[in-house]
Design brief:
The complex is a heterotrimer. Chain A is an all-alpha fold. Chain A has nine helices and no strands. Chain B has one domain (11-211): MetI-like (MetI-like fold). Helix content of chain B is 80%, strand content 0%. Chain B contains nine helices and no strands. Chain C is built from 15 helices and 17 strands. The chains are: A mainly alpha, B mainly alpha, C alpha/beta. Chains in contact: A-B, B-C. The B-C interface holds B 109, 111-112, 114-122, 125, 129-130, 133-134, 136, 208-211, 213-215 and C 45, 48, 50, 71-76, 79, 81-82, 84-91, 98-99, 102, 132-135, 158.
């Protein structure tokens, strides 16, 4: 049953999957650029940082459908009320929190003596950030990116409700039409995508953590 | 008409939706908490450590499964109605709670557990007086995640006929009524934020201050 | 008295403790000493039944611990492990109150007891009762650990490398503190360590273990002077240098050949040439001592009386020697905590002890 659905809708599924991925991917790139820059900017200003991270956490608890709907209303005056713009905007807003928080935490955790060593060798503040702090913070930042990506895959499903396309189409359309095969096919794809994104980025994360990688090579 | 006017004129209907929403989330969270806590305690016993580690791996990965997928899947089995939503939310809510409970309990140092036994605590006393308090921070964090996800997912559950505040947003979207969209959004966002604030408050009173001091 | 009777613990093919028989005397510190993996910690944990033996029996005051409920048994025994054993989510008061609360004491009584014990371990209750373990230094945590073990006033204390995680300087002061505490409390202490210095310093008795077996058990001094075999000799080798003077307790090395009399008795009696050393004690005051046979050669008995230094029995030989050298006196009278005279020490005696031990 599901098999026949997939056979019949193969091309459609591929198109929706790519749509889904591009939506999440675009939001992730935007969120990573904003989140990391923001994290760097607020590092060293603890009080500001707490406010920023706190505000982002509050935004994070707002249900995704609510934020999508809110953006539909907010962007309507500029004729972008439905479609990809509100979807990508909402996904970006959500994805910023895990990235900015992890960036900030990771930069705080860098050993002060390492920073002093770098300063002692004559690095400028921006060199210390780019050559020492950020590389050391990278694994944790990547963990934030992974969280954002996994969450984004789930939330992008909801984008179908506001005309954003993606794999949510099969689920919501399937429920509306009471077409079980369509729902199952959509659910399968979205689950696989979620697990694949998580697994793939986890591997990337481990590859960027020097200690972990070495342990792995020696067979644990 | 703005959102507040909408709320004022339709308050009886809206309050019923709020009640539905809270009911759905409340029942689901309670079920998830009971199941997650019980399972987490069982799989973190020293004899079942291998099972416990496997559970941590599985629940860790399962958090990558979108919540909508679980609702959709339940829809396939139980069809339209609030029952589908409550079951789906309960199942989905177990994942972060079970993950946090089992990993926090497995992280309780063996020395501390042994010190407790060595002082003459029964296994139940070790669990209640030592292990659970040490894991409380993480358990509460899991609970907060589950509540946030459930409040959010319950909104989407409107599509399987579960009722709740999602109805207001969906109707608003389909008939293009910004006041309804705003009203629904405002309410559901307030519930999410207030419940998280409430839980943060509970967390502060439940978790010992001694644990938040950096060692 | 704790008796271990042919106790054996096997894990699969591996024998961790092998037919160990040992009698641990009351009111004294008995050290279980040996290299890691010798079974000393396993032995300790079998006493409070954290580990059940494969074979054999353990009796406390004649009662087999296997006839008791393990929970009740553990509540009646103090247990101290490395600093991690404090519960971080309880305050100091909560930690000290663990066993009393298990025994259903009321809150007021627990609080009073916690305050008493903090004073006993030299921590100000008004400062420390409400603190959490992570707000304490390593040494403070360890004191709280000892206080916690003493909470329900147990006769027996089991201590598993309690000072192991502490830096050497603080460890030494904790050891001194614990010795002073024990002189007042006189508990039956079983103390596991792999640190020979700690064993010699704290132990009234030392039991040396190897591969799960008892190699030698004796009072500390006898063990140092008469190691049973090459293994013990090698193990103790680390203590055989003059710097280890600071480990040996004066009480263990005193010259016990002396008689006590009042000044008046001395003046009255005609003392024979072979009479031992005389310590003059009038009431509670020690006024001096007279060297062996010296009295016979003196016209006026008062001329024979020598001045002296007093040294506590818990002082180390190094402290005793330093005191003597600085004061220029020939002898020190070593006193127990209650003022009893344990004996005397002189610089040549200490030199002789060192020569013997360093042989």
């Amino acid at each position: 049953m599901v098999g026949t659905f997939i056979a019949g809708y193969g091309a459609e599924m591929l198109r929706r999957t790519l749509q889904h991925i591009s939506m999440v991917g675009l939001a992730l790139v935007l969120a990573a650029s904003i989140g990391v820059s923001l994290g760097v900017a607020i590092s060293g200003h603890d009080r500001v940082a707490r406010w920023v991270v706190g505000a982002a956490s509050v935004l994070f608890t707002v249900p995704s459908l609510a934020l999508f709907a809110l953006l539909v209303v907010a962007l309507a005056p500029i004729r972008q009320g439905t479609g990809r713009v509100p979807a990508v905007t909402a996904l970006t807003l959500y994805s910023i929190l895990p990235i900015v928080r992890n960036t900030w935490v990771a930069l705080r955790q860098v050993d002060p003596s390492t920073v002093q060593a770098a300063q002692g060798m004559g690095m400028t503040p921006s060199q210390v950030m780019l050559r020492v702090k950020l590389p050391l913070a990278l694994p944790l930042i990547m963990a934030g990116v992974r969280n954002a990506a996994v969450m984004g895959v789930g939330m992008a499903t909801i984008a179908a409700l506001i005309g954003g396309g993606g794999l949510g189409y099969f689920i919501f359309e399937g429920i509306a039409r009471a077409n079980r095969s369509m729902v199952i096919a959509g659910t399968m794809m979205i689950t696989l995508l979620g697990l694949a994104v998580n697994g793939g980025l986890l591997l990337a994360e481990e590859a960027m953590t020097p200690g972990k990688r070495r342990r792995g090579e020696h067979g644990g | 008409m703005n959102a507040f006017q909408y709320l004022g004129r339709n308050w009886p209907g809206v309050s019923a939706k709020i009640a539905q929403h809270l009911g759905m989330v409340g029942v689901a969270v309670a079920a998830s908490l009971v199941v997650g806590l019980a399972l987490g305690i069982v799989v973190s016993r020293p004899r079942l450590q291998k099972v416990g580690r496997a559970i941590i791996g599985i629940t860790g990965a399962a958090q990558a499964v979108p919540s909508v997928a679980v609702i959709a899947l339940m829809f396939v089995y139980t069809g339209i109605g609030p029952r589908t939503a409550v079951i789906a939310l309960s199942i989905y809510g177990v994942v972060p709670i079970l993950f946090n409970v089992s990993s926090a309990l497995l992280l309780v140092p063996a020395d501390i557990r042994e010190a407790a036994r060595g002082m003459g605590m029964t296994p139940l006393q070790v669990l209640v007086r030592v292990e659970l308090p040490l894991a409380s921070q993480s358990i509460m964090a899991g609970l907060r995640t589950a509540v946030t996800i459930d409040v959010s997912t319950a909104t989407v559950a409107s599509v399987v006929g579960a009722g709740g505040l999602g109805d207001i947003i969906f109707i608003g979207l389909s008939v293009v009524r910004p006041d309804m969209i705003m009203a629904g959004t405002l309410l559901v966002a307030s519930i999410a934020i207030l419940s998280d604030v409430l839980l943060a408050f509970i967390q502060r009173s439940v978790v010992s201050r001694g644990l938040s001091i950096p060692s | 008295m704790i008796e271990l009777d042919s106790v054996t613990k096997r894990y699969g093919d591996k024998t961790s403790v092998d037919r160990l028989s040992l009698t641990i005397p009351d009111n004294a510190i008995t050290i279980l000493l040996g290299p890691s993996g010798c079974g000393k910690t396993t032995t300790l944990k079998m006493i409070n039944r954290l580990i059940e033996p494969t074979d054999g029996d353990i009796r406390i005051d004649g009662h087999s611990v296997y006839g008791m409920d393990p929970i009740d048994l553990r509540r009646s025994i103090g247990y101290v492990i490395q600093e991690v054993g404090l519960f971080p989510h309880f305050t100091v008061e909560g930690n000290i109150g663990v066993v009393p609360s298990l025994l259903d004491w009321d809150r007021g009584r627990i609080r009073r007891r916690a305050g008493e014990l903090l004073e006993l371990v030299n921590l100000d209750p008004s400062v420390y009762l409400r603190r959490y373990p992570r707000e304490l230094s390593g040494g403070e945590r360890q004191r709280v650990g000892v206080a916690r073990a003493l909470a329900a006033d147990p006769r027996v204390l089991l201590m598993d490398e309690p000072f192991g995680a502490i830096d050497p300087i603080n460890r030494r002061s904790l050891q001194d503190f614990f010795l002073r505490l024990q002189t007042d409390l006189k508990r039956t202490v079983v103390f596991v360590t792999h640190d020979i210095g700690e064993a010699v310093k704290l132990g009234d008795h030392i039991a040396i273990m190897r591969d799960g077996r008892l190699v030698q058990m004796d009072v500390t001094r006898a063990l140092l002077e008469h190691p049973a075999d090459a293994f013990v000799e090698e193990l103790l080798g680390a203590t055989r240098s003059t710097e280890q003077l600071l480990l040996y307790r004066a009480a263990h090395y005193v010259d016990t050949a002396f008689t006590v009399m009042t000044t008046e008795e001395m003046h009255r009696s005609g003392v024979e040439a072979e009479a031992p050393l005389i310590i003059l004690k009038d009431g509670d005051d020690i006024s001096g001592y007279v060297e062996k046979g010296l009295l016979v050669t003196c016209e006026d008995p008062q001329e024979a009386v020598c001045r002296f230094e007093t040294v506590s029995g818990n002082a180390t030989l190094l402290e005793a020697v330093t005191t003597l050298l600085e004061s220029g006196r020939k002898r020190a009278v070593v006193q127990g905590p209650d003022g009893t005279i344990l004996g005397t020490l002189s610089v040549p005696m200490v030199a002789e002890i060192m020569a013997k031990v360093a042989r």
